[in-house]
Write a structure and sequence with these properties.
- By secondary structure, the protein is an alpha/beta fold.
- Helix content is 44%, strand content 14%.
- It contains nine helices and seven strands.
- It has a seven-stranded parallel beta sheet with strand order 3-2-1-4-5-6-7, sandwiched between helices.
- Helix 1 packs across helix 9, helix 3 packs parallel to helix 4 and helix 4 packs parallel to helix 6.
- The chain binds NADP nicotinamide-adenine-dinucleotide phosphate (NAP).
């Protein structure tokens, strides 16, 4: 699916693979100039080589304090403004609550929530100027996942709340803020779970909770992110759209 982003600029965090890569590719296909953010410089460069609208590669680690300043100064230096911010990067460290470490909680909340909020803040003025749009990628985990995901679920619940709060705070500036909450999506994020529980078993058993009966694809999430980021969603703000094959309907 392609929406019209002709002449627009966008930042996508976590663009080196999976859902973020799909979002970056779709924004570029719609005409946007996209800044690709993640740690893996080689992967970002190889994706950027496929894009047609003069992309920007920003290899940074969002767990570092100065990452937000580095991203905003690079983007504003190159683009001179911003229309679309997609906060998609996340870490998920499965740990039973009885064994969770403070370090894992800190990293998860810092990367998934704190830095997403700081990026919104850092780009506030340019987004006010363009009457732009923010899309946060959260998770169905925010509203009641299975166990061992406490820090991750809390970070995504926080991001849902932030989405609604910012939507209200910035509506008068013309900035829309929405979220997409994916369910089961076939990406590398599942690698550690496949390793722990066996890939075949996870693929077969987890899908039992999905009424549509299959895993989603990164492109199916990117379709909805790009809709929300586009002018076609001009009257949509403060919404959390679940894209989960009906999983949270059960
Ligand atoms: P993924 O394949 O693991 O990709 C995660 C992305 O985040 C990568 O590009 C990774 O890049 C980046 N990232 C992680 N830590 C980072 C850091 N410290 N600094 C900068 N970038 C970092 O996961 P995905 O499935 O595409 O997930 C994308 C989003 O969808 C996440 O917000 C996730 O919570 C959400 N989600 C996914 C699912 C699912 O089933 N897959 C379900 C619900 C929600 P580098 O490693 O190169 O830094």
């Amino acid at each position: 699916m392609s929406f019209d982003f002709t002449g627009k600029t966008a930042v996508v965090t976590g663009a080196s693979r999976g859902i973020g890569e799909a979002i970056a590719r779709q924004l570029d296909a719609g005409g946007a100039r996209v800044a690709l953010v993640a740690r893996s410089a080689d992967r970002l460069s190889s994706i950027a080589a496929d894009l047609i609208h003069d992309p920007l590669v920003i290899a940074v680690d969002l767990s570092e304090h100065d990452a937000v300043d580095r991203i905003s100064s690079t983007v504003l230096g190159a683009f001179g403004g911003l229309d679309v911010l997609v906060n998609n990067a996340a870490v998920e460290r499965n740990q039973p609550a009885s064994k969770v470490t403070g370090e894992a909680i800190d990293e998860t909340l810092f990367v998934n929530l704190r830095q997403a909020f700081m990026l919104c803040s850092a780009f506030a003025k340019p987004l006010f100027a363009s009457e732009g749009s923010i899309v946060n990628v959260t998770s169905t985990a925010a509203t009641g996942a299975g166990g061992t995901q406490g820090a991750y679920a809390a970070s995504k619940g926080g991001l849902n709340t932030l989405t609604k709060n910012l939507a209200n705070e910035w509506a008068s500036k013309g900035v829309r803020v929405n979220a997409v909450a994916p369910g089961l999506v076939d990406t590398e994020m599942w690698g550690p779970t496949f390793e722990m529980l066996g890939e075949d078993a996870v693929r077969k058993n987890f899908v039992k909770s999905v009424p549509l009966g299959r895993w989603g694809t990164a492109d199916e999430i990117a379709d909805v992110v790009c809709f929300l980021a586009s002018d076609k969603a001009a009257y949509v703000t403060g919404q959390i759209i679940r894209v989960d094959g009906g999983m949270t309907n059960l």
